[in-house]
Design brief:
- 69% of the residues lie in helices and 2% in strands.
- With 255 residues, it is an all-alpha fold.
- It has a domain of 143 residues.
- The chain has a two-stranded antiparallel ribbon.
- Helix 2 packs parallel to helix 4 and helix 3 packs antiparallel against helix 4.
- The protein is flat.
- Keywords: Membrane, Transmembrane, Transmembrane helix.
Length: 255
Amino acid sequence: MGHWLYRNIVEPGKLPLLLALASFVLTFVITRVIVRMIRAGKGPFGNVKAGGLHIHHVVPGVVLIVIGGFGAVASSRYGFGACLCAVVFGIGAGLVLDEFALILHLDDVYWTEEGRQSVEVVVVTAALVGLVLSGFAPFGVNDLSDQELQDRGGVILTVVVNFLFALLALSKGKVRMAVFGVIVPFVALIGAIRLARPGSPWSRRLYRRRPRARARSWLRAYRHDRRWSGPRRKFQDWIGGKPDDELARSLPEHR
C-alpha cells in the first residue's frame, strides 16, 4: 500500500489533490451533520448572524477558496505549503458546494426540492476528482514497466471511449449517466443507445418528425422517473436531509 501510494500519489505530485479531496468530502459531511443538528434544535450549534444578517457558510467558503487557490498557484506541487493550501481549498470548496443550490437560484432553497442539487453536485465533484486522483494516467510516474504502460494505456483508452459515449448520452438528456459514465464502464454506453429524454437536444432534432419515437420517449421517461425518483430521493435525503414541505417553509426561519 505504501509503495503504491508513493508511486501513484506522492511521486506524481498528487498528494495535495488527495488532501483537497479528503478535506472537501469531510467538510461536506461535517457541515451537513451540523446543519441538520441546527435544524432539529439539537447540540450547541446555531446560525451565524451579524447585525441581523444570516451569514451562510458559502461566505467563509469563498474566502477559503480564494486563499487556498492563490496559495496553491504561488507554491509548487510538493512541500508543506502546497499541502496546506490544498486542505484550505478543499474545506472552502466543501462549504461552497454544500450551498451550490443557493448560488444557482439566488435564494435560500437549502431545505427545498431545489436544494437537492447541492448534494448531486458534491457527489459528482467527488467522483470526478477521484477519477483524476486514481493514478491510472502514466504522467509523472517514473520507471514504468512495459506491462504497467500497457495497463494504464488500456485504462486511458477505456476512459476516452466512455467519454465519447458520455457526450452522446448528454445530448440525449441523460446527465447523471453521462457524468458517471466517464468513471463507470458501460454506464455511458447504456445512456447513449437508449431513447433520448423529451426536450433533450437529440430529441428536438431527431424526433421532430418521428411521432412514434417521441411518444416512446415520453412513456419511457415517465416510467423511469416513476420507478427511480423514490430511491433517488431517499438516497439524497440520507446524505443531505429531507427537504421541508410547503407548510414548514411558510413558518419562521428554523435554520
